[in-house]
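In this section we walk through a basic example: taking a raw amino acid sequence and producing a predicted 3D structure, encoded as discrete structure tokens. The instruction is simple. Fold the sequence below.
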Amino acid sequence: MGLPIICEQLIKHGRGADTPAALIQQGTTVNQRVFTGTLADLPRLVAEHEVHAPTLVIVGEVVQLREKLAWFEGAQGQV
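The resulting token sequence is shown next.
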């Protein structure tokens, strides 16, 4: 997976290793899984949680809005 290279390059080119980051696997489906951490954490999170495609990577301060905007996580299984 290219994620370790992407994270490495973002840090190399000015993003802080402590920049908030998230992985959203199978977003908007009943199988959605979300993992949050920092840019430096992403490769470890992928390995620990066996994250596979399709997965969206979000990098930046917007990740800190997860709790406020987590409407879908509470709505799963509801019509």
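Looking at the output, two observations stand out. The helical segments are 3-12, 42-49, 66-69, 71-75. The mean pLDDT is 87. In the next section we compare this with other chains.
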